[in-house]
C-alpha cells in the first residue's frame, strides 16, 4: 500500500536535513522505499534500522582507535575533536555507500587515513609553522609533547604506518597502488627549453 | 629501539580525560549525518547551482534562438554560438558532478583518493573559462535586448556592424577571464598544488618503503 503524502514529506524533510548531501541517491532510494515499502525487507533480511544499529555499534566499538589516530595529526584540543568528528562522519558515509566486497572495517580505516590526510593538507596551507600544543589535561599535554618529540619530522606516510602497526591493523587496502598513472599538469610545448630559460632570466 | 620507545609511549597514553573525551552517544547521531568534507574540497553545491543557472540560461537562449529562427535571422549566429556554449557547459559540469561522486569518494584508498581529488579541482579550475565566456555572452545578449527596446535605431546600426559585436564578446571574455584568474582561481590553484605535493610525497614514501621491504 502507498504511504501518505504527509509521511513522504516528513521523510523528505529528514533527508534534506542530512545537509543536502547525496540528494539524488537518497531521493531515489527514498522514493522507491515509499512506493514499494516491502521490497527491501523481502529481499534482504537486514532492515534499515538494523544496518544503522550495526553502524553505530561499530563506531562505538572503534571510537578509541579512531580517536588515537588524531594524536599523530592534531596539535590542539579543537583540532583533535574536529578531526575525530570528521573521521566518524566519513566512516559512516563510506559504510552507507560502500560497494559490495569491501569490509566495513576497511571503510572505517580508509576514512581515518583519508581524513587525516585532508587535515594535514589543510594545516599545511594555513602557514603557521610552529603551532603550539594546547590540551586541557596536563597528563595528555605531556604525553602529546613526548610523542611529538619522538616523532620529530616524521612524514605522514610513516605516521600512518606507525598508527597501523601500533593498532595492529592490516594496511593492505588502505593506500592503493602507486604504479597507476595519474593525470599530470598540462604543459605547453617547450620547443627549446634552454633558450626559453635564457630569455626569461636574462 | 626507537620504535619500542614509541610503542611504549603509545600504549602508555593516558585514558582520555573528561575534557578530552570524544563526543559520543547523542552527538554520534548528529556526527554520522554531517558532511565530513570542508567547503574547499566539497564543490558539489557550487556545481549544482551552476547547473541550475546554466539550465535556465539555456532555456532562455533557446527561446531567443527560436524567435530569431522564425523572425529576421539577423542575429542568429550570436544566439546559436551561445546555445552551443551553454550546451557544452552543461555537459562539462554534469560530467564533473558524476565523476566526483562524493558519496563514494572518501571510500577510496589514499593514493587514488588524492589523485581523484586533484583531477576534480583541476577540472573545476578549467570550468572558470566556461564561466567567463558565459558571463560575456549573457551580458551582450542582455545589452542587445535592452537596446532593442530602448533605442531600436542604434540597435539596427549595431546589427549591421557584425564584427563590433564579436569584438565586444572577445573583449568581455578576456576581461572576465583575467578577473577570475586574479580573484577566485589562485586559492584553488594553491589547493591543487598542495594536494599534488602531498600525493607525490605519499607515493615516494610508499615506493621507498616497498623497496626496503623487498631488500
Describe the overall structure.
The complex is a heterodimer of chains A (202) and B (215). Chain A has 9 helices and no strands. In chain A, 66% of the residues lie in helices and 0% in strands. Chain A has helices spanning 5-17, 23-35, 39-43, 48-73, 77-96, 104-125, 138-151, 156-166, 193-201. In chain A, helix 4 (48-73) runs antiparallel to helix 5 and helix 4 (48-73) packs across helix 6 (104-125). The termini of chain A are far apart. Chain A has 202 residues and is mainly α. Mean pLDDT of chain A is 72; it is low at 14-48. Chain B is mainly alpha-helical. Helix content of chain B is 81%, strand content 0%. Chain B contains 9 helices and no strands. Chain B has helices at 2-11, 26-31, 44-70, 76-100, 102-105, 110-150, 152-160, 162-183, 185-214. The longest helix of chain B is centred in the middle third of the chain and has 41 residues, at 110-150. Chain B is elongated, with a radius of gyration of 26 Å. The two termini of chain B are 20 Å apart. The chains are: A mainly alpha (202), B mainly alpha (215). At the A-B interface, helix 4, helix 5, helix 6, helix 7 and helix 8 of A face helix 1, helix 5, helix 6 and helix 9 of B.
Amino acid at each position: 500500500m502507498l504511504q501518505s503524502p504527509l509521511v513522504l514529506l516528513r521523510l523528505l524533510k529528514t533527508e534534506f536535513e542530512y545537509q543536502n548531501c547525496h540528494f539524488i541517491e537518497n531521493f531515489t532510494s527514498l522514493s522507491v522505499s515509499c512506493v514499494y515499502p516491502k521490497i527491501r525487507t523481502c529481499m534482504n533480511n537486514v532492515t534499515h534500522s538494523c544496518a544503522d544499529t550495526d553502524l553505530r555499534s561499530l563506531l562505538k566499538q572503534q571510537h578509541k582507535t579512531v580517536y588515537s589516530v588524531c594524536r599523530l595529526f592534531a596539535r590542539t584540543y579543537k583540532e583533535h575533536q574536529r578531526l575525530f568528528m570528521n573521521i566518524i562522519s566519513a566512516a559512516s558515509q563510506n559504510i552507507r555507500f560502500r560497494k559490495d566486497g569491501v569490509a566495513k572495517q576497511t571503510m572505517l580505516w580508509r576514512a581515518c587515513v583519508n581524513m587525516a590526510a585532508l587535515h594535514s593538507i589543510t594545516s599545511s596551507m594555513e602557514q603557521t609553522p610552529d603551532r603550539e600544543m594546547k590540551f586541557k589535561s596536563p597528563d595528555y599535554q605531556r604525553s602529546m609533547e613526548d610523542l611529538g618529540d619522538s616523532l620529530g619530522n616524521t612524514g605522514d606516510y610513516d605516521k600512518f604506518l606507525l598508527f597501523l602497526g601500533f593498532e595492529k591493523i592490516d594496511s593492505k587496502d588502505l593506500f592503493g597502488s602507486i604504479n597507476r598513472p595519474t593525470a599530470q599538469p598540462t604543459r605547453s610545448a617547450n620547443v627549446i627549453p634552454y633558450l626559453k630559460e635564457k630569455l626569461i632570466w636574462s | 629501539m626507537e620504535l619500542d620507545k614509541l610503542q611504549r609511549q603509545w600504549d602508555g597514553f593516558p585514558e582520555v580525560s573528561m575534557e578530552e573525551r570524544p563526543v559520543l552517544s547523542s552527538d554520534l547521531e548528529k556526527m554520522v549525518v554531517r558532511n565530513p568534507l570542508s567547503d574547499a574540497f566539497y564543490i558539489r553545491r557550487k556545481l549544482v547551482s551552476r547547473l541550475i543557472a546554466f539550465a535556465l540560461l539555456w532555456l532562455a537562449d533557446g527561446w531567443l534562438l527560436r524567435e530569431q529562427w522564425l523572425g529576421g535571422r539577423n542575429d542568429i549566429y550570436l544566439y546559436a554560438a551561445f546555445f552551443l556554449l551553454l550546451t557544452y557547459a552543461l555537459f562539462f559540469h554534469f560530467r564533473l558532478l558524476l565523476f566526483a561522486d562524493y558519496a563514494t569518494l572518501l571510500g577510496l584508498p589514499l593514493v587514488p583518493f588524492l589523485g581523484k581529488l586533484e583531477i576534480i579541482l583541476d577540472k573545476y579550475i578549467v570550468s572558470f573559462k566556461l564561466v567567463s565566456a558565459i558571463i560575456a555572452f549573457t551580458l551582450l545578449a542582455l545589452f542587445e535586448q535592452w537596446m532593442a527596446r530602448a533605442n531600436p535605431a542604434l540597435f539596427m546600426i549595431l546589427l549591421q556592424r557584425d564584427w563590433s559585436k564579436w569584438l565586444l564578446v572577445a573583449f568581455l571574455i578576456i576581461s572576465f577571464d583575467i578577473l577570475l584568474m586574479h580573484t577566485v582561481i589562485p586559492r584553488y590553484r594553491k589547493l591543487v598544488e598542495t594536494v599534488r605535493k602531498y600525493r607525490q610525497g605519499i607515493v615516494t614514501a610508499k615506493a621507498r618503503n616497498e623497496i626496503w621491504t623487498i631488500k
